């Protein structure tokens, strides 16, 4: 019997609750022939909020990618930490959720909006979008101004996301909304129902693309 | 028992051999809970080579999309015929293989190349890439100068694809190659093995994204 | 005596009142040696408001262009339906009014604004502008939120156009305004007088370019 | 009897032979109700080849535009000297032939090429195209490496233009060619016949647009 | 003893108070081995506010640059008058303060804002930014709506600059602010202290770059 | 007596010969009132050639920047490692040599070329240029295909640089050339003399900008 194929989804922060949230969000994508394994990066900070947090996880992430040698790897943090160094370290696909979330939004609507956790992340995200050369499709990015922890667990998160999502849709002209944090996953469906435009969970988007790449080999 | 979910993949030309080729290319993506149904558009021409061919299939395609009411639809022609009118006709996802092939290439490499069937299609493809606002990632597009029929069946197709792919990689700097026709699907793996860079079959790319969208509902 | 040269201006909707409005708007452009013939597309819908309306007129338009074999053809609908298929069908110039209206605005001011009939057309127009690769000159697009019929005939149209034009000029920084519908033609001069910046009727712009192309032959 | 409307076409160099060439090129555009008056700028150098030549004609051009008070003015030099200061000096349309030549090319083909007189002008033209925000439509620019005088009069000019035009079409992918000097006007039709793609004389293009603007008032 | 190296800083308006303001602003950049000589252009207008003002100083500026033959020249007006003709006239570096101010801002923050004197200059500045191909980094430009004279001397200038700078920072997302006039130099430090983001005096920026170019020879 | 102001120039590789080369290249920029201190990053690899090399030095660099608390810091590696995390860690200016080298080239010529050490770095550099939103000014990038060590010391380096520089100038149209490695510094003047267009050493460019920022405080 051949070894099962496997996609590694790494939560680069050390908050296991976020990892469990990813598992829940990814459960509908499960298929019998390709395992989806979610891992918490032990070396990660509790939340990735600063550029220093991003840099700190880069090499441990790379080491984990090499060690696990999965058929494909998804880096489940919207800053796509370590994306290029991981790609250098393995010939197998390594996908970042920011890239895949945005690319999937581009397949759903003319222009997209992004819900950020905090305003200070927006310049970092704009750098990514310019680097990707897709920024002309950005309708706007707006911040919840909550911490990663609050976003994942707080009672008011969905209400804030709906308010921000409406501004993206009605003021900025976004035809789809990307949730700019892996920790927002639980709210995707409710937010989409409320807004009436596609809402993209970037981890789901990346895992879907990874499944496709692994399946066709 | 709930009705099974289903992705409709439409070959807009009337060449059943191409449709069977799509079925073969998509077989590895099959999962038990979501059916992938490939359909030939009866009204389509034998091959879609001109803008007139594109326009002729647009409304029959739209009608088929509405009639079938699948959970998601993939238009399996690299000109993405009828994409916007189909999206207008249904709230469910409609994906074009040119869009999804290119977007998937953007998740694999810095710049991508495209293998076209004929040089006269290149301006049409450039219009699509500018419309998508991703053209700054294009390394180059080069043509086989073969007909759709020759491409699907001819003995020399793979050899020509390898030669063109090498030019895209070595002269133009492409880090990934998109096959610019649904009929090239059978050659993906051999071409990738030969070139040593990711080769994207756009129909596989689109169906992978569609599976993700349907799975998360 | 040589056959007179002739420009065909096609109103792709079946509303003869719009065609007569075009004739009135184009009367000042008349010159003795080149005829300007306005035609209603019999197969067109009463107004072109959706993508389906656009697609429905594409092939009848192409057939009319081929049948009439004018020295140049202008497609007088701001969605430029069938532009590329008509160009494929004849070596003679085929001009779209959206393209020509925007290009003429670029010769008058640094950035331009567009008055749309309805907000739902804006993503379609943005796709055109990105496809044309001129979107960095767009100051903004704003909608009247009236139907094509209301726009052509309603008493309040000019007042709404002035209000929207002022927003384009003062809030968005537009130095010229393009009227985003062939049916707005009657209001050009009054709107320009009111706004004090160039106002472009796209059908006049396209016919002026067509006259130049035909005259130099 | 109302004063006749009039378009002023200024040749900013002092070479009357070029002005007479413009008159010949514009003769087919003549219409009874709008005069096209070609003027040589007395203060101009014999040819405009350097940036200093451009700057030297700027204010004399502006003064001539103000003094003549035509209904519209065309600056017939491919460097568009004085375009912005002339626009500031009059509310009436002032058109530059480089802008109008390129904009007209955009209405004829997906990407355009430019035939320059000398390679040292190319950076200046690229600055114009970036300033116009249309550079993504440029297929390429190639130089004859002849002087303005040679271009206007030399026996070999057409042969060189054909050779350069073929490179633009076949190597660079240009679907239309803009002649990058007012002095090339006599060769437009022969070049177009030879290349089989639209060839744009920029002065004809600008005067056609000016006629349209003046006619609709 | 070798002749001392020297940077020429030209104030193209004839207002000596502005030149003395430049001297004060540049004093901190002085180094013993390279002189910084500020000159008023005798032929300049009292303030450069229009395109005609820009054009009037172009050739006198060029003549002064050639006559002085400094090791490097800085044109100290935010419209960068005569930049390209001066560069043509000498192989030595000629720097414009608008270019250098913006380029220095790009080394400090993700996106920058510009404080203009008057709104009517904004289209001119946008043309420069598109020509430089850096406009995707512009967060916004806002005007004080004061004259050059008021800006240099008026008591209320700093207060207006702070108000406009806050809008650039908070509404437009600017991470650095460029002062869009040489006459604002005296307010740089106070404005930076107030805003808490880098504030760039473009003349200081240009002279710093010129010093580097001259020093390395 | 106030503490002297100081610019820290960090060579992030551990090759002291490169650091001494930087000291030599920067000697002409020395001024009495601001010290320029070159440091070798002890933790760095012998050369930075891969993305992993880049990532490895990021946090040690950041720590050194914080520890030294210089008035400004220059990261002297053409990959600009750690640029954003260092900026987050201090309110004082942190400049990357790739950014500053390119920005300085933009002040000297219309389009620039880059000499890379190896072809595999080019996609990384293109990402930077897209992220900076200045890629429309890139004429081309070409590689020496030598190691960092060979480049710094080898006898043939200058000859290879001249050959590559000529291709950038003559084939790609570069009006200025950026040396894409801190270790090339010794060859700047000889290369510029040979090519006849400005050649930018990026470390000199960055230190010149840093001197300006520190001097004006």
Give the gist of this structure.
6 copies of one chain form a homohexamer. Chain A is 46% helix and 18% strand.
List strands and helices in order, with pairings.
6 copies of one chain form a homohexamer.
Chain A lengths: L4 E7 L4 H11 L7 E7 L10 H18 L3 E4 L7 H7 L4 E3 H10 L5 E5 L5 H11 L5 E6 L4 H6 L3 H14 L5 E4 L8 H8 L3 E2 L1 H15 L1
Parallel strand pairs in A: 1-2, 1-3, 3-4, 5-6, 5-7, 7-8
Helix pairs in contact in A: 2-3, 4-9, 7-8
Family (chains A, B, C, D, E, F): Belongs to the HyuE racemase family.
InterPro entries (chains A, B, C, D, E, F): Asp/Glu/hydantoin_racemase, Hydantoin_racemase-like, Iso_Racemase_Enz_sf
Pfam families (chains A, B, C, D, E, F): Asp_Glu_race (PF01177)
């Amino acid at each position: 019997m051949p070894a099962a194929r496997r996609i590694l989804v790494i939560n680069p922060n050390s908050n296991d609750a976020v990892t469990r949230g990813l598992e829940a969000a990814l459960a509908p994508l499960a298929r019998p022939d390709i395992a989806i394994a979610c891992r918490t990066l032990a070396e990660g900070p509790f939340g990735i909020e600063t550029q220093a947090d991003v840099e700190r996880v880069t090499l441990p992430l790379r080491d984990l990618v090499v060690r696990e040698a999965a058929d494909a790897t998804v880096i489940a943090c919207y800053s796509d930490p370590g994306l290029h160094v991981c790609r250098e370290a393995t010939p197998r696909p390594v996908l970042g959720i920011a890239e895949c979330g945005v690319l999937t939004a581009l397949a759903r609507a003319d222009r997209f909006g992004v819900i950020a956790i905090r305003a200070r992340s927006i310049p970092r995200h704009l750098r990514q979008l310019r680097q990707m050369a897709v920024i002309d499709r950005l309708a706007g990015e707006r911040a919840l101004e909550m911490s990663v922890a609050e976003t994942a667990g707080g009672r008011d998160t969905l209400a804030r996301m709906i308010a921000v999502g409406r501004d993206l849709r009605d003021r900025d002209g976004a035809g789809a909304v990307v949730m700019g944090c892996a920790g927002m996953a639980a709210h995707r469906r409710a937010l989409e129902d409320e807004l009436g435009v596609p809402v993209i969970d970037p981890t789901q988007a990346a895992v879907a693309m990874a499944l496709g790449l692994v399946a066709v080999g």
